[in-house]
Amino acid sequence: MPLHPSDTLARPLRSTPGEKPTEGSFPCPLPPPSPPGSDASFRLLVESVEDVGLYMLEPDGRVASWNVGAERMTGYRAAEVLGRHCSLFFLEEDVAAGLPQRLLDEAEQLGKVRDEGWRLRRDGTRFYALILITAIRDAEGRLRGFTGLGRDITARRETELQLREARDALRRHESLSDMGSLVAGVAHEVRNPLFGISATLDAFEARFGHSPEHAPFLSTLRREVSRLHHLMHELLTYGRPPGTELHPCSLSSVFAESMDVTAALAREREVHVELSVEPALPRVPMDPGRLVQVFQNLLANALQHSPSGSTVRLTARRLVDEGHTRVECMVMDQGPGFVPEHLPRVFEPFYSQRPGGVGLGLPIVQRIVQEHHGSVSVGNGAEGGAEVRVYLPAEGEPSAATHPGSR
Q: Which segments constitute the PAS domain (predicted)?
């Protein structure tokens, strides 16, 4: 008997009374079966859902229907998949292991089956999917086919992996007190973004389309996802274990890249960035990418605290100290400077006095500079504004000595 969407697609997937959706579940059940005469409207509704893949399978696993959400998720148009077996979307090794048929068999025996795993798009790229397959039976109990719902949860999985890596990084952290601060900070900072993501997804998936009334939900989602990814990036950077390989390089390219990365922020803040590098500056043993992070953080901090029309200065000079050659790099702004009472705590993880700040910028700077056998100090200039000094050993020199006010 052929499958018909109006009396089969929605019914098996509706929650029972009082049932609560679980983590990773589909919080918006399909509408109830359409009344007689509305088959075309129901089909149009199902086919227009863009954020969830909805499809139907014949008893042997061949695709019987395919909506626009499934098309967006996989890249396959309906004409390309109708009549083809659902194993088309599985990895080669999963097909060889019999996974597609095993899922259909379990759905037939148990009524429904839920699975997470890698799937293939039309262009050959992979995505991580959550699928729910439900068996459809007629009044006599004969199997008529299956309904399928699928969601691309690649981003969620990446976030979970980042959180796991962050926890691993925390375990590697040598200071128990710092570890406690990190754990507390993560718990505080991640909780709200995750709640925002979850609430926004629920609200968004409860509706279909992209009308203006949905814009606030989408905006919140993007903001919270961005915040979470930024936090995870900084946390992983801070928790990265030591062992950086250093090679002598020029600081000029590091400064240039750091200024390029922060150029948009400088334009937004209407602040001029001025670079002054002493001629014939000695090379420094470094990991260039890591040092770019240092000066990117320092310039960003300076720009965020600088008034419109002011200047942020980045300077570098040779410094001979007790017979050893060092390079002194300074970032100076014309903002309010550091509050003297805060200076002892500026390198503590998650300590921030800036609204919306994560409090990992300076701790990351300190960690990376120490990996380069250098030191960093903070203070205020004689004429106001904050000053951050980074000392790095020149090529051929031993580790940097500790300078007054450095950490």
A: 38-111
Structure tokens at 227: 């915040």
289: buried, middle or exposed (CB in 10 Å: 19+, 13-18, 0-12)? Answer: exposed
Phi (first) and psi of residue 406, to 5 degrees? -95, 165
In SS3 terms, 168-221 reads as HHHHHCCCHHHHHHHHHHHHHHHHHHHHHHHHHHHHHHCCCCCCHHHHHHHHHH
Q: What is the pLDDT of residues 361-392, one digit of tens each?
A: 788 888 889 889 899 999 998 888 999 999 99
Domain range 5-152, CATH class = alpha beta
> Count of CB atoms within 10 A of residue 257's CB?
16
Superfamily for domain range 247-393: Histidine kinase-like ATPase, C-terminal domain (3.30.565.10)
Strand ranges of the sheet holding 112-120, from the earlier edge strand across to the other edge:
63-66, 53-57, 143-152, 126-137, 112-120
**Interval 220-243: pLDDT, tens:** 666 666 666 666 666 666 656 555
